């Protein structure tokens, strides 16, 4: 695969993740879409780092992975607490966090 193929793959993965976030009403599936978008950005960062011959993109991708891991921990904790209280993880419930 050439580096252009990796960039196209990154764009396709980002599009799939964005479509998942915009169309799914389940919070867990929305988080999966966000993670897919973050990983596609990581792929693009590493590809551009490879094109330019520096390690900057790889270091940035590492920090994105660290932030994504923290986001998943906090996000899943919120989803679990909402599920325990309401027995649903639908993002259509606008009054979910009022009480």
From TrEMBL:
Q: Does the keyword Repressor apply?
A: no
Please give the InterPro entries that the UniProt record associates with this protein. Answer: NADH_UbQ_OxRdtase_chain4L/K (IPR001133), NUOK/Mnh_C1-like (IPR039428)
- Reported EC number(s) for this entry are 7.1.1.-
Q: How does it sit in the membrane?
A: Multi-pass membrane protein
- Origin: domain of life: Bacteria
One example of the protein's molecular function in GO is: quinone binding
Gene3D superfamilies, sorted: 1.10.287.3510
Instruction: Give one GO biological process term.
Output: ATP synthesis coupled electron transport
Q: Which NCBIfam families match?
A: PRK05715.1-2 (NF004320)
- What does the function comment of this entry state? NDH-1 shuttles electrons from NADH, via FMN and iron-sulfur (Fe-S) centers, to quinones in the respiratory chain. The immediate electron acceptor for the enzyme in this species is believed to be a menaquinone. Couples the redox reaction to proton translocation (for every two electrons transferred, four hydrogen ions are translocated across the cytoplasmic membrane), and thus conserves the redox energy in a proton gradient.
Q: What is this protein called?
A: NADH-quinone oxidoreductase subunit K
